[in-house]
Amino acid sequence: MKKKRFCPGCGKAISETQEFCKGCRPKEEISFKDIYFQYCSNCGTYFHKNKWIKTKDLESAIINSVNDSVKQKVDKVTPNIPDVTIAPGVNVDFTATVLTDAVDYEIPGRVLVTLCPKCAKQSASYFEGILQIRNPKEDVIDYVKERIDSDDSIHISKTEVVKGGVDFYVSSNKFLRKLGKEIKKRFDGELKESPQLFSRNRQTSKDIYRLNVLFRCG
């Protein structure tokens, strides 16, 4: 006669292959990569592996991103999206409940709401920040244009000649900040960043900023 086994956590009968019952089994760590992606609020595409992919909605984009991020086999993903305005320039912090091997985990992620290149071109006035070049030199201007042209996800909505320089209205704050650092490293001059209050999200009570990056050529 086989000896019965019991769960050391609650005393329930368990099989010979089990150490704990389902309810008392210790929770293992879930392994996943950081989840951060861009989502176009106009057409519903999201940026994944260097290309814009069509999806049903933001929830579907999150599910796809979580499945790609988690290293274990995923049985189900349930996104938990806060009640915020989904508009270009807004960062949406979310969590996702992930079911794997009958255990639930909650993992965090972030979505940058923006416009894909195709929609941005249709909405030529859209921009998130301004690159201000002062005492401009030809090689600096050429470098700026070359970098922006090399990235299909970025566009300039307007180029404006102003007193003492040139302003570029750029579609991405993240790209603009990176470009400013690249210019500073490559050319002689002074770099300054200054966020400018653009609007306020009434639902989250968070301010939304546009970024001004000033580079004064030396």
Annotation keywords:
218 residues; alpha+beta; Immunoglobulin-like; 2 domains; five-stranded mixed β-sheet; four-stranded mixed β-sheet; 4 helices; 20% helix; 40% strand; elongated
Descriptive account of the structure:
The protein is an alpha+beta fold. The chain has two domains: 26-114, Immunoglobulins (Immunoglobulin-like), CATH 2.60.40; 124-217, no CATH class. 20% of the residues lie in helices and 40% in strands. The strands form four sheets. Strands 10-11-9-13-12 form a five-stranded mixed sheet, with helices on one face. Strands 3-8-7-6 form a four-stranded mixed sheet, with helices on one face. The protein starts with a strand and ends with a strand.
Layout of secondary structure:
Elements: E1 5-6, E2 13-14, E3 36-40, E4 45-48, E5 51-54, H1 58-69, E6 76-80, E7 91-100, E8 103-114, H2 117-122, E9 129-134, H3 138-149, E10 156-162, E11 165-170, H4 173-186, E12 189-201, E13 206-217
Parallel strand pairs: 3-8, 9-13
Antiparallel strand pairs: 1-2, 4-5, 6-7, 7-8, 9-11, 10-11, 12-13
